[in-house]
Amino acid sequence: MDLDYVIRLRWVMNRYQKILAVIDANAQEQKSLNRALEIATKSGASVTAFLSIYELSYEMTTMLSMDERETMRQAVVDERSDWLTDMVEQIVDDVTVSVDVKVVWHNRPFESIIYEVIDHSYDLIVKGTHDHSILKSVIFTPTDWHLMRKSPVPVLLVKEHGWPADGQIVAAINAGVEDEAHISLNDAITQQAQGFATLLGAQVNLVNAFPGTPVNIAIEIPEFDPIGYTESVKRHHCESMLQHADKYHIDESHCHVREGLPEDVIPLVASELDAELVIIGTVGRQGISAALIGNTAEHVIDKLDCDVLAIKPHGFVCPIKR
What we know:
With 322 residues, the chain is α/β, with parallel strands linked by helices. It folds into two domains: 1-158, Rossmann fold (3-Layer(aba) Sandwich); 161-322, Rossmann fold (3-Layer(aba) Sandwich), CATH 3.40.50.12370. The chain has helices at 3-15, 31-43, 56-59, 66-91, 109-120, 142-150, 180-200, 215-220, 226-247, 262-273, 287-293, 296-302, and strands at 18-22, 46-53, 99-105, 124-128, 130-132, 137-139, 155-158, 168-172, 203-210, 255-259, 277-281, 307-311. The strands form two sheets. Strands 3-2-1-4-7-12-11-8-9-10 form a ten-stranded mixed β-sheet, with helices on both faces. The chain has a two-stranded antiparallel sheet with strand order 5-6.
């Protein structure tokens, strides 16, 4: 057996020992739990089916005492726990994976998920996305965006795309950068891609977008050579991409360098390859800057028709404290 394969397999098995599958009480099919079990079956991880519930009407019942309201809340939690236990038993009947069930009462689902991750040291969050039949697209909830920006561990957003054998995984990197933070994130993305590729028997593809010639420069400076400039930028990104690929023994035929915005290039390449999974870094920008600028990762994810694994850079500090 190839030594690199063994090392990568051991890496992903050690990396993902505890998986938190976020349950959607309104969904007929629990995509997150099914995907979590698929990963756990191959990696040996344990899975927790996690449901966060909240009903405002129970908090507005001012005629009752605090103890009585707490009793009502606990009754709802117990009822949902029984429902979830029965559902899990039906799904995992033929799967040899350890699955726990947990239901909590919380008015902000993303916070309850992150609290659970922090308190019990989970390695991965798996959450299903919502299909919008009218728009024929995927609708991301506020919980999805909060998790991608604030989760201290990788977040796997599951769509309808399957994970067949011999599939394609896309690692979206930012080649051509020289700062340590971006280089470290490129390494983390590629390592995650190779780990999942080993687990699933898939092929890793690297994709990188580079900017085109700024229109204002071409207009304001008559002697400016836009074609030469674009070729120079492309050459720099291609060389950087090959250096990165060589470090991880990825063949040049699986390296894709395209001109354009990441939110256009990455979905295009993923579609051409019919990728099962795209792995992307997200900086977790918060506050006004997030509202005004947004995150490239979020613009990319909107256009993808496959699962997305969003990871944070090394040294990321979760803004939610226990």
